[in-house]
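User: Can you fold this complex?
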Amino acid sequence: MKLVSSIIKPFKLDDVREALSEVGVTGITVVEVKGFGRQKGHTELYRGAEYVVDFLPKIKIEAAVDDDQVDQVIEAISGAAKTGKIGDGKIFVYDLCQAIRIRTGETGSDAL
Amino acid sequence: MTNVVHKFFAVLFLTCTSSTAVYAADAASTISGADTAWILVCSAFVMLMVPGLALFYGGMVRQKNVLNTIMYSFAALAVISIQWAIMGYSFAFAPDVGGVIGSLKWLGLSGVGAEPGPYAETIPHSSFMVFQMMFAIITPAIISGAVAERMKFSAYLIFILIWSTIVYAPICHWVWGGGWIGSMGALDFAGGTVVHISSGVSALAAAIVLGKRRGYGRDHMPPHNLPMTLLGAGLLWFGWFGFNAGSALTSGSLASSAFVATQLAAAAGIVGWLWIEWKQRGKPTVLGAATGAIAGLVAITPAAGFVGPMSAIVIGLGSGIICYMAISLIKPMLGYDDSLDAFGIHGVGGAWGALATGLFASTAINAGGADGLFFGDMTLLFKQIASILGTGIYAFGVTYVLLVVLDPIIGLRVTEEEEQVGIDLSEHGEAGYTNN
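Assistant: Here's the predicted assembly.
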């Protein structure tokens, strides 16, 4: 099993969620996050005083998937979240040791 | 249908005749129903400026301090209303003692009732008193902008109570209560010196004595809710018609002239601020528009009833540009932390307005006023400068000493931890926004 964690532009969330459903992902976790990468921040202006805002709002999506699904999932996210402009985000893939469905006690792939 | 119309007019006629009877009874004691109605409505307008100021300031602080910042203004409503009735009004307006302070004659509002007082002969004395009460309330609330996000609430309450008694009341007396500034012929129609210079320079003194907010200059402290600030600015603008046009103390042509000047100066304040900001920084900001409007309103306050509409536009434009420079160019060089720019707007804008009154005042607008420099008389300008220096030096000095004395006794600032957590939680046990 793998945990696919992606940072995307907030307004791309619905597109990504749809694309993931289409490739059979049955559950995701979404977190509002802030951070910076190559896009850097932006400048805000208050009464003539300039503030550089380093941290931009992004959305982090986590999806736990079977090993054989991973490539499809990455493709779905990349396709849906891409605008071609700086700041589209990143996808990280981790090995996932275990998954447990709390209600039934199922483990492993059955719990996904 | 005609029947309904007839009934309507019959009722209207009865209402009119019965009010005429009341007016006739009032006329014997010179009281005018129209003037009284106007001043009472204006008093309510000015009262609305206080919650307006609360929102204006509240939107500009960080989320963790929004309630405390709003509370500063509401607390002034509570504390100063009572202070004014007990002693403030007497010290400000009771018969003069030596040109510096009012006597004790009207303590507890004794003798301040239905008959007209010495300041406005067509309205009850109590109407004049309550109109002035609203000015006394908003003035210390303006200072709260300089101490926001770090002053202890208990210290603030004690401070405004004493400040209103030993700074506001005497200055108000000097200008409007028969004291030396009014007697020498300096003009202040609605409180450029009394309200804005006094609060503005006191705000500077307070910002210096309290010191900077922790992290000032390093941490980002952007406004947390600009729509709230804009709503507050709108309420202030609305209330300012009561402030300025009401200061005519009658409902006639002078009130109308001051009303027009007020509107034009506020509009020109926005234009002035946005013009220089756009030019200098490349973008016109919403906070800049709100700030420019308030700057224009501050500057027209002393001049409202003495200048014509074109002069009002020039005064407003000047205020937007001058306050912008004071806040975004000069303040960073001096390094004091006037959190919400109470000095930059009210001190600087008030001084410009008082000066501009000496330039643009015209007896063609108000025969009870004087001619300024541009209308052929230079002496008024010198009197205006004397009034700016007199009120400015007194307010700054007394506020500075008062706070330096209070600090070791009661402690002016919240602790470092309380400041980090936020004053809403540490001083009031509440949060402005929750997740559920």
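Residues 11-27 of chain B have pLDDT under 50 and may be disordered. Chain B has 15 helices and two strands.
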